[in-house]
Amino acid sequence: MKQKALFIFFFTILNFPQVFAQSKQAISFQADRQLKNEERYPGTIRLSKVENQVFFEHDGIEVWCDNAVFYQTANFFKAYGNIRMQQGDTVTMTSNYAEYNGNTEFAFASGRVKMIRPQTTLETDSLFFDRLKQQAYYRSGGKVTDTSSVLTSKIGRYFMKEDKYSFIREVVVTNPEYIINSEQIDFYSVSGHAYLYGPSTIESETSTVYCERGFYDTRNDEGHFVKNSRIDYNNRILEGDSLYFNRENSFASATNNIRVTDTVNKSLVTGHYAEVFRDKDSVFITKRALAASLQDKDSLFIHSDTIMITGKPEKRILRGFYDVRIFKTDMSGRSDSLYSDQSSGLTKLINLNAGDATRKPILWSGLNQMTGDSIHLQSNPETEQLDSLRVFQNAFLIQKDSIEGYNQVKGLELIGYFNENELHRVYINKNTETLNYMRNDSDDLIGINKALASSIEIFFVDQKIEDIYYHNQVDGKIYPEADLPKNGRLLSGFNWRGGERILTKEGLFEGESTPILTKIKGIPLPEEPEEFFEEREDNDLLLNENSRLKPDILKNRDEDTLQFKTDSLKIEKPKIQESLKPKDSTQVIKDSIR
User: Of 25, 328, 539, 551, which residue has the fewest beta carbons closer than 10 angstroms?
Assistant: First the structure.
């Protein structure tokens, strides 16, 4: 009994190829007219329409046509005229010509080919269809019409199980609102999700997005872009390691190594988190925020915890919140907050927390330190040169003496005037006091002058006090150095803050810790699918020796493969990071100072 069982087993193994070959389902057909001509066309049946179209059926696929040549022994047919190929209720393909091999379940169609799916319609000149893989492929140019867009490319491959198109070379997505150009796009027709690889642009009337790897939801008009990404608006350019874009809300945000360039006002804002609202013409940026603008051939830098820029290009308003620091080669300063109107040239250094004296505005111009409850700087919008400044309430000017001590002036209000960006005259009024070290031409100390007056006018030369004029002097006295004790050489409210002076651009960040950057979840490269045309034996053809196509055509070409790839197939929609979604700017400001 065991010997009989072994005999049956080995007999089955040895004859497996034959059994497998015989298991291939034969193509069935119906036709009004059939013609056999064994002498001229051996092994074929010529089929044609009279009233009803020629009909073929094979393993779930149905084909209608006007005429056909059926190679019955080879299980292969050629179809001509008004061809319609139906696979279940999900795939319909029409063409002028088609071939089908029942043994390999491989089809070829040409001449106004149209493949219709529930979400998309594919049109091309010629199409290969592998039923075993459930994949369609074209490489002579094709067009896919989606519910909202039209996609064209030189090469395309459709994966039916994933409902995914992989477009290669000269890919264009045309939507009423925008046009996408790319070298490679993976498109999922059910969701409308598109993955962009290689140099890609999304252009509309109001913006242009560039990236070399990105994701775009064509249904909801929002995207996530990485690798050399940027968004160009009419007057701004947004760059960053990771960008989020929502067309409906005219909103964009960026995370890590951000640059927002104002192309009209020649300014740049950097940081590590930013939001841009195009319709509102506003920019919000935080995490090591730094604004730089060109003024009279010199750059002005403003750093604070948070920077907001609003308004049209000709009426930009810049606001800085919390620990504002400014630097220019001939000036620097600090304040709690800052307001700058670029159209009028007015910049205000403000303390929003009046109870905290450490946040009181301070400004250094050359050797002069000025403090007060608020400081206003006025520049000429046309020449961009500094014109004047005003210090309101508790104005205090201190200049370190060339040898020792400090020259001091205080009053209720200070008005300063600039010449070629250098402070050359200061006017202080209401309850003014002065203390200055008087020296001769040899820099020898003559005495220390203390005076009270209703107002004082000071002139500077090379940033040093040259002359002082007292108006309505109430009291004044010059003390020999020995007669004025150390504790009498400082006016009430004196606070020298020279250690806080910012001397370089890098000094803007002194004392601050380097921010911890958000970890960016990138967009993976597409996983490489298996080759469409598999290697076969010489006598085992995908179609048939009687096919219109030569066997060389049914081979993979290097120029038709993915340019950007990994090594498998599925890609999930990337989750839009919380750091990229729109936030309440007020809450962000609060969070940033905790």
Answer: 539
